Amino acid sequence: MICFVSAGEASGDLHASHVMREVKRLDPAARFVYLGGDNMAAVAGTLPLIHISEMSVMGIARVIASLPRIMRQLDAAKKAIDRIRPDVVVLVDYPSFNLKLASYAHSLGIPVAWYISPKVWVWKEWRVAAMRKVIDRLFCILPFEPRWFERRHDWKVEYVGNPSVSEIDQMLATLPSREVFSRTHGLDSAKKWIALVPGSRPAEIKANLPIMLSAMRRFPQYTPVIAGVTTIPVELYDSLRGDTRIIFGATGQLIAHSEAAMVTSGTATLETALIGTPQVMLYRDSGSHIVYSLGRNLLKVKYFSLPNLIMGEEVVKELVMHFCTPDAVAEALNRILPGNCDYQRQQQQYADMRKVLGNGNAPLEVAKGILKLAER
What we know:
Rossmann fold; single chain; 2 domains; globular; alpha/beta
């Protein structure tokens, strides 16, 4: 079987690599042509057609400036699909780019599988009509998504489990002791840490890290530690962090060994909940009342963080835009610290969320679906 896989971001590279590994286990003869990163390369044993470092672009201005390059990449991907005629095309998130690839593969009669649905239930719901025409199987990782697609668009899609569940469980199973972790990263094991997880993009870090650091001044009994991202220049962190300690490449381990965490919205909120560490979610961006109001009118969901979206209730306190101030963050953090009023409530909601997510092996279920499509 020849499988064409497209993932345009770091998270997609990781999730796609797990699916590819399961495909190889089920079909050792499987070969991959792909757009992706180092994780996918380790499984495929070949270099990517296009590396994710050349693909990921954030912000409207940057997207517009990068349009010629993006179109060249899209054209290269289409030509590769046309040339090799894969048995199946597998697309992982990255909707604007991948939806065009799905349409092209469909026009050639090649079956298309999509793993990790675009968040059309938040915004851009109009995409669903186009998706239905060109996607043969849509694999979702949030338990409410199949119900949403069927109720609103009469489209039966599949919940395969959430990959973060097994990924976090594997991380916890090999978690080094606090003493070993401290020695490895130059931390004081006698101190109690608060993990600061300010995002994975420069704009997020610039907006959110100063709020986190300011809030931590209310807690001199705790030591803040920043979870750094290796793809971000260290100079950006250095310009903001003062003498606050920063570690790279060990975010999950840091959260697991911390008393609590301040987390910017995204998959990290779900991972923190699965680890079981108390958390507050914050997202500052511009902090403008007007931008917040406009965004609220555009979005179709009540919550921003994944634990809250999954449970349909406030598991994690969300402080967004102009509500995200150091005082508000400090007050919310204080409430969920061990022994305080909201600690036990949040822990119980974390346990309930795990039950809702289930223990399914998402990469394996997707791999089985891919092989069935290829058999056509």
